[in-house]
Design a protein that fits this description.
The complex is a heterodimer of chains A (112) and B (97).
Chain A (H helix, E strand, L loop, with lengths): L4 E2 L1 H12 L3 H20 L4 E3 L3 E8 L2 E4 L6 E4 L2 E8 L1 H15 L4 H4 L2
Antiparallel strand pairs in A: 2-3, 3-6, 4-5
Helix pairs in contact in A: 1-2
Chain B lengths: L2 H10 L6 H20 L3 E4 L3 E8 L2 E4 L6 E4 L2 E8 L1 H7 L7
Antiparallel strand pairs in B: 1-2, 2-5, 3-4
Helix pairs in contact in B: 1-2
The chains are: A alpha+beta (112), B alpha+beta (97).
Chain lengths: 112, 97
């Protein structure tokens, strides 16, 4: 895996390149888009971005957990968590790209 | 919220932009994330979370109906880990580790 990390700056660069706004406006729009997605999630709404993914908020009830180091039982308080479900389009795209690049399964990679 | 509603909300904050532009902006962002994942890269967005690709090694599975053993090929799946700030915003009354 190439292992590069893409950040806000790269997204802003893509907006600058594809839409043709100034660099600073591109950066502020990237920020607003992320912010509005987060705001909707915090409001408890599910966010469905077709051909990309769905973000959903789920309520977890209290359950008993265990400190793996000490074995001690501790209650895990009820909480809200977010789930991410990639769309079939995105899943297929990621899978196809990896298969194309890495080829079919072979013993060298299977042994890793 | 669906994509067109996101476009509308961002558009309302930017009355000087055409609706079409805002649509292109949202798509450019999502496409850039998708392309990065296809290339096997990570996308880290502080305050929101991090997108990455996880490898699921091949395994021998079982058809639950017939009990027949089937080979399941290795695959790569998109993964998202919620960022600390968003986790805290979802649970304002507690400290989340």
């Amino acid at each position: 895996m190439s292992g590069n990390t893409v950040t806000r700056a790269d997204l802003a660069e893509a907006v600058f390149r594809k839409v043709g706004l100034s660099r600073s406006e591109s950066a502020s729009l990237v920020e607003m888009v992320i912010e509005e997605i987060c705001n909707a999630i915090v409001r408890g709404e599910s966010v469905k971005l077709s051909s990309f993914a769905t973000f959903q908020v789920r309520d977890k009830t209290e359950r008993v957990g265990r400190n793996p180091k000490t074995g001690e039982e501790v209650p895990i308080s009820p909480r809200r968590v977010m789930t991410f479900k990639a769309s079939n389009v995105l899943k297929q795209k990621v899978l196809d790209a990896h298969r194309d690049r890495l080829g079919p399964l072979d013993e060298t990679r299977a042994a890793e | 919220m669906i994509k067109s509603e996101l476009v509308q909300i961002v558009g309302a904050r930017n009355p000087h932009l055409y609706h079409r532009d805002v649509e292109n902006i949202v798509n450019a962002i999502l496409d850039e994330i998708s392309d990065a994942l296809a290339e096997g890269n990570r996308v880290e967005l502080r305050g929101f979370g991090a997108f990455s690709v996880k490898n699921r090694p091949s395994r021998s599975g079982r058809n639950p109906r017939t009990g027949e053993t089937v080979f399941v090929d290795e695959k790569w799946v998109p993964f998202f880990k919620t960022g600390k700030e968003l986790r805290e915003r979802l649970n304002p009354d507690q400290r989340v580790e």
